[in-house]
Amino acid sequence: MRGDPPDTLLYAVLCSIYEGTNTRASLYEQLDSIFVVRLGRMTISPVDIDVALQHSSNEGLICQANGRLSLTPKGTDLLRIARKHLLHEGYWMRRFLTERNVVLTSGLVLVFLVVIKLWVGFNISSHAMVTDGFENLTDLIVVGIIAFSLRYSRDRLGAIAIMVFMLISGTLLGFNAFMGILTPEVIVTSYWGYLVTILSIVMNLGLIRYKTLVGRMSGNLALISDAKEDGSHIRIGGGVLVGLLFAEVGIYVVDSIVAILIALVVIWEGIEALRELLEAGDDLSVDTIHLAASQQYDDLITHWILAQLARSSASGDELTKKFLKGVTLGYRYYDVHAVIGFKDLEQKGLSKHIQIAERSGLVRVDESRLSITNNGLILFYEQRVNEMKSVKKQFSKTRNRWVAAGYAIFGLTAFMLLVLYGESIYLWFVSLLRVLMGIA
Fold first, then answer.
1. Residues facing 62 on adjacent strands
2. For 61, phi and psi rounded to 5 degrees?
3. What is the pLDDT, as a whole number, of residue 110?
4. CATH value at residue 255
5. Structure confidence at residue 28 (pLDDT)
6. Does residue 199 sit in the same domain as residue 305?
7. Alpha-carbon distances, residue 203 vs 173, 234, 355 (angstroms)
8. Of 139, 191, 178, which is closest to residue 259 (Cα–Cα)?
9. Residue 377 CB contacts under 8 Å (≥ 6 apart), including other chains
């Protein structure tokens, strides 16, 4: 089986045949509406199933007699192994993707970032980096707020408190940057300043994804709010990099100017997020807080809706009934992999996503029937292309484990070379930059 079981349609086909869905027509109907997040394919057409069957036949996993499909002993053994692997992976995902682990991981990462940013920031006299380090220090208080909200089930209060902290940190950032303009200092640029900043950006991106995923799965507002607040660190990190680059040619004031601009953005986003939280009232949920990392999950359902309407129009009730059937089937076959990133998907239904798709001009309503628009078709085909590219990658990797091991070795080697020779590369780049700028 090419790829992990949660990522392959072949696995669903084998499961269906094993359960007794043993004709092509019944497979078409069975898998038509399946919803699986990890599968990454919202469009399951008869052609896709035919291809999976051909793949199964090529690998000796199925046999056909009198129009009936059945698993070969090899197919049965592979399915048993794949099922065991899938459930084992799902078990550890449930253990890892918990609110407690997010809080613990966030705390450890923040302590590391505070120490390294303050040490490097003071050494190179970067206001932006020092301010970012102190903001990470205040983020430890935010982690405490999240822990409190988890302990006493006050995630709404925790979310509001986090947004207030976002406003405070933005204000402090702007004040310190303004003072940096009044009393400018020479920024001592170094390789380690860049390395720490890039490391901070990468770690914050990871935390945003982690918090968003667990926050959506648990419905915890405080985690989603904290993920939004972490987005400010990405911007600050970008500002620090800009300031360091200008400092290389002796323009030090840019560091403070960029910090002020970032502070204004952070304050504006904090006000907007706080307004969203307060205006939502009793309808407040993890979907209330707009977050780029969270958008992908809503997009999955929108793509599923478009895939269904691309075939034929349907009423909202018909789509919802089909969706619930697809979610149930996906969960039965793929376990937690089917609904990762979602909470109470069966209860929420599709009404919200249908309304958003209609407002976005992707679908239209004619006499209670939904149909896809030309804009919706464009998005549908774009998603279809992405799905096919993903399938192509699975088939192009004949030995996935060896390929993955090769990438791991390459990444480790590149990291070691960066650690050993990164400073030399940095000095060469700086010399080249100064020559191009005409600076001695």
1. 71
2. -95, -25
3. 86
4. 1.20.1510.10
5. 92
6. no
7. 21, 10, 35
8. 178
9. 306, 310
408 and 313 within one domain: no
Whether residues 190 and 334 share a domain: the answer is no
Q: What is the pLDDT of residue 374?
A: 93
Count of other CB atoms within 10 angstroms of residue 314: 17
pLDDT at 429: 81
Residue 334 structural domain: 292-391
In DSSP terms, 69 is beta-bridged to 64
In a domain, 370, yes or no: yes
Q: Determine contact, residues 314/367, Cβ cutoff 8 Å.
A: no
Distance of CA 63 to the CA centre of its chain: 39
Helix (H, G, I), strand (E, B) or coil at 50: helix
Same-domain pairing of 179 and 267: yes
Residue 191 domain-assigned?
yes
Q: Which of 283, 317, 338 is the last residue of a domain?
A: 283
DSSP H/E element including 202: helix 191-218
- Number of independent structural domains in the chain: 4
Q: Are 110 and 212 found together in one domain?
A: yes
- Both 130 and 267 in one domain: the answer is yes
Same domain, 237 and 333: no
Residue 5, both tokens: 């079981």
Question: For position 53, which CATH number holds?
Answer: 1.10.3380.30
What are the phi and psi torsion angles at 11 (to 5°)? -60, -45
Low-confidence ranges of the chain (pLDDT < 50): 284, 291-293
Same domain, 111 and 256: yes
Q: What is the 3-state secondary structure (H, E, C) of the chain?
A: CCCCHHHCHHHHHHHHHHHCCCCHHHHHHHHCCCCCCCCCCCCCCHHHHHHHHHHHHHCCCEEEECCEEEECHHHHHHHHHHHHHHHHHHHHHHHHCCHHHHHHHHHHHHHHHHHHHHHHHHHHCCHHHHHHHHHHHHHHHHHHHHHHHHHHCCHHHHHHHHHHHHHHHHHHHHHHHHHHHHCCCCCCCCHHHHHHHHHHHHHHHHHHHHHHHHHHHHCCHHHHHHHHHHHHHHHHHHHHHHHHHHHCCCCCHHHHHHHHHHHHHHHHHHHHHHHHHHHHHHHCCCCCCCCHHHHHHHHHHHHHHHHHHCCCCECHHHHHHHHHHHHHHHHHHHHHHHCCCCCCHHHHCCHHHHHHHHHCCCEEEECCEEEECHHHHHHHHHHHHHHHHHHHHHHHCCCHHHHHHHHHHHHHHHHHHHHHHHHHHHHHHHHHHHHHHCCC
